[in-house]
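Supplementary Methods, section 5.1.

A reviewer requested that the exact input to the structure prediction be made available. We therefore reproduce it here, unchanged from the version used in the analyses.
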Amino acid sequence: MTLYIDPPTWPGHGRMWSHLISDVSFEELHAFAARIGAPPRAFERDHYDIPSDRYADAVAGGAVEVGSKELLRRLTEAGLRRPKGRPLA
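The structure derived from this sequence is encoded token-by-token as follows.
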């Protein structure tokens, strides 16, 4: 099981955010997110939004730190990318 997280460089709601993904399945992603205490509402189409103050928890839980471009590449190659503005399959 490998989960990936990018640095908390995405601003929103007065905070900085990371994206947490799986390159295997959404089931794996949801299970990991639950283990680190990420609420279901943090899931957005193909990733979890993780606030900067929870970044270390995700890494300590086993998420691998990668850059944003690498994260997107892995998500796309796994066939799990669900861009905004496109209907879910």
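The mean pLDDT is 93. These observations are discussed further in the main text.
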